[in-house]
Each structure stands twice: as structure tokens, then as C-alpha cells.
Amino acid sequence: MLGPVILAASRSDKMRRFISAAPGTKQVVDRFIAGESVDQVVPVIQDAAAKGLEVTLDVVGEDITTPEQAAAARDAYLELIGRLKELGLGARAEMSVKLSMFGQALEGGHELALANVRPVVEAAAAIGTTVTLDAEDHTTLDSMFAIHEELRKDFPQTGCVIQSYLFRTEADARRLAAAGSRVRLVKGAYKEPASVAYQNKPEIDKAYVRILKTLMLGEGYPMIGSHDPRLIAIGQELARQAGRKLDEYEFQMLYGIRSEEHVRLAAEGHRMRVYTAYGTDWYGYFMRRLAEKPANLLFFGRSVLTKG
């Protein structure tokens, strides 16, 4: 039951200050965050490529309160794409973006987010890669899906994320499992009410399997976002039953979690993409990683105690 408490703390400025100042925080943050700048994340991308892995890059930061901050987020992604072009890494790296970072929650936010994300998607396409729109809390999803649909008119490879803990997602998956679509399925990492989301793990896992089956039987490209060994095995079996080749779906896992499994799956011939976050505004992302798995929280607690 600690997960909802941690997710609530992710919105607390007081907790942000406390955790940021804790002596052991940096050690744990470094496990999940690949660096603070493009220069620091480039070697991580190169190392992943050398291991046969691909990456999706997230410039962290969601607490946008002004249009100027939203424009700065756009520019951070454009800088990243420029570096990927210089280094010839476009084929190994895509981008993941949260539309809240592009101003979605501001006045006129839907149009603002679309205007800010479009040049990022265009620049990504120009270097041979693409962008996936991350799912956030349920109140933002209609806007996210509408922006996704609009972007796909010119950039059909643009992906999106769906979350198995939401009741609506089975219907969303049926709609999205069409030719040319790219859909990442995750369990979900936001605090959602019982009126819109399953609240216990068995129900969330069962929904995950039902939704993944829909994606595998569809005509799109499923992206299996999970570290759960059971769900990974089920994903492999569903792909086999659907007659999918190894390059017709992929696995995705977070940077810093089950890294040996990343390499194992790639060595077996699977497409394996590592969700790699970087940047200075790491707090919200970090807290969701703690909430997702008790072991992460225990790791953090031990680090704080031993560094205090």
C-alpha cells in the first residue's frame, strides 16, 4: 500500500526538498537517471548500441508552469536530436515525451503542446527516428490521443503509450491496434481513483495480458513495457501464437532495472529498448520508480541510512 503514498509525495514540494537533500539520494537517483545533460547521456546510448540494445530517451521534467518553460523543453529535445544526428545514432534511439512538459496543462494547453511537440517529431523523422507520446494521468489522455492522431497524419510512425490499470484501455487498444501504429503497453504509474482504474496487481496483470493479446493480434507494432518475468514470457508466447517475427514487436525496460535481462533478450534476437531518462528535474520520475516496486524503495532507504 506504499505505492499510493509515494505517488502522492511526488506532488509535494516539501517532500521534494527533503528527498533532494537526503545524503543517499544521489546514489539511488544515479541508478535510474542516466545523467543531467546530453553530453552525459551520449556514452550511455553508445554503450547500449554496443550491446545490441536500442533506447528511448526521456528528458525529465513535468512541472511546467509557463509557456517559456514549455518552449525550453521543446528546445532540449531538439538539442538532443541534433546530437544524435551528429553521432549517427538516430537508428538506435527514439524519444519519449510527456505532453505536460510541452505545456499541456497550461491555458490553451492542447494547442500549445501540439505546437511544441510537432517540431520535435519532425526533427526526429529527419534523422530516421521517431517519438512516442507517454501516457500520464487519466485526465490528460483524451488530449494525448488527439495529438497522437493529428501527428500521425504527417508522421505515421509516432507512437503512444497505454496503461493496463485503466478501465478504458481495452477499448483504446482495439482502436489503436491498426496497421502502422506503434503502441507501448505499461501497467501504469500514476495515482488513479477506483472509479477509473484497477487498484490491485492481479487485476492489473490480467488486464495487461488481455490488452497485449489485442495488440499482438492487431496489425500494429506492440511494445511490451514490463520487467515482470511472467509477463515477458506471456508476451513471447502471444507473439508466437500471433505468428509475429522477432522484429515485429519489442520489449522495453527502464534504465537501471534488470540490466542483465536487457542483454539476455537482445542476445536471443529480440528487439530490446531501454527507456533512458536524463535531466536535472528528476524528482517526479524518480518517485514513480520508487512507487512501482517495493525493492526500489528498500534500496533507497538503505542508501539514505548508510550515508547519513
Summarize the SSE layout with pairings.
Blueprint: H1 2-9, H2 13-21, H3 25-32, H4 38-50, E1 54-59, H5 67-87, E2 93-97, H6 109-126, E3 131-133, H7 141-154, E4 159-163, H8 169-176, E5 182-186, H9 201-217, E6 221-225, H10 229-241, E7 250-254, H11 259-267, E8 272-278, H12 283-292, H13 294-307
Parallel strand pairs: 1-2, 1-8, 2-3, 3-4, 4-5, 5-6, 6-7, 7-8
Helix pairs in contact: 1-12, 5-6, 6-7, 8-9, 9-10, 12-13
State the total count of DSSP E strands. Answer: 8
Q: What percent of residues are in strands?
A: 5-15%
What is the molecular shape?
A: globular
Instruction: Please provide the ordered H/E string of secondary-structure elements.
Output: HHHHEHEHEHEHEHEHEHEHH
Helix content: 40-55%
- Spatial separation of the terminal alpha carbons: 26 Å
The Cα radius of gyration reads: 18 Å
Main sheet overview: 8 strands, parallel, barrel
User: What is the mean predicted local confidence, pLDDT?
Assistant: 88
The SS-based structural class is alpha/beta
- Enumerate how many helices there are, as a single number: 13
Low-confidence segments, given as residue ranges, are 299-308
Strand order of the largest sheet: 1-2-3-4-5-6-7-8
Label this structure with key terms.
308 residues, alpha/beta, 13 helices
Report on the structure:
This protein has helices at residues 2-9, 13-21, 25-32, 38-50, 67-87, 109-126, 141-154, 169-176, 201-217, 229-241, 259-267, 283-292, 294-307; strands at residues 54-59, 93-97, 131-133, 159-163, 182-186, 221-225, 250-254, 272-278. Helix 6 (109-126) links the parallel strand 2 and strand 3. The longest helix is centred in the N-terminal third of the chain and has 21 residues, at 67-87. It is 53% helix and 13% strand. Helix 1 (2-9) runs antiparallel to helix 12, helix 5 (67-87) packs parallel to helix 6 (109-126) and helix 12 packs across helix 13. With 308 residues, the protein is α/β, with parallel strands linked by helices. 44% of the residues are buried. It starts with a helix and ends with a helix. It has an eight-stranded parallel barrel with strand order 1-2-3-4-5-6-7-8, surrounded by seven helices.
